[in-house]
Design a protein that fits this description.
Length: 185
């Protein structure tokens, strides 16, 4: 990755997104309780996310390789997830939470395979393990930092403020991809 501009862009944009998502990560169950849900709603909404992601992944498996500018799908995934996080400010019902989990599933299905494909496309074939290890190290560290920072934000400023921060960071990730010259990615 040291001299690989494409991997640097992918690492930065995805690290910002991963950090943003993990701001909520372990606090999700508390959030669901705060909107009147319980353990069952946490479980059901998580299951809906995974099922929606799986169904949308089936579509991506057939369609994704036909897309010429895959990086635009990655940016779209960040935008969808940013909008879903911002929507969490207005959730008042279990149905609304379930619908937002479907949107998260769409964002996940668009983003994860595209990130992986772009990452694989730009790896140095003589340093594949090193570059995947670099990404895992960065990802793990930003996840750890995100979980801690998220707790501080919710403790002092509440969930709504947290969702604005997360949404903004998702849009920054999208912008990082969108404003990168196409020849790099």
């Amino acid at each position: 990755m040291r001299n690989n501009a494409a991997l640097k862009v992918l690492f930065i944009s995805n690290a910002v997104y991963v950090f943003a998502a993990l701001l909520l990560g372990p606090l999700y169950a508390i959030y669901v309780q705060n909107i009147g849900g319980g353990v069952l709603l946490v479980s059901i909404s998580a299951a809906v996310f995974y099922v929606a992601s799986t169904l949308f992944l089936l579509f991506m498996a057939k369609w994704g390789d036909k897309v010429k500018e895959k990086e635009l799908l990655l940016a779209a995934s960040y935008i969808i997830r940013g909008l879903a996080f911002l929507s969490m400010i207005k959730i008042e019902t279990a149905l609304a939470l379930i619908l937002i989990q479907i949107a998260f599933g769409l964002g996940e299905a668009l983003g994860t395979p595209i990130f992986g494909a772009l990452f694989a496309q730009h790896t140095n074939k003589k340093e594949e393990v090193l570059e995947y290890s670099d990404w895992s190290l960065i990802s793990n560290l930003v996840m750890a930092l995100g979980t801690i920072v998220g707790g501080f934000i919710v403790s002092s400023l509440g969930f709504n403020f947290l969702f604005v921060i997360i949404g903004t960071l998702c849009f920054i990730s999208a912008g990082w991809i969108l404003f990168t010259p196409r020849k790099i990615l």
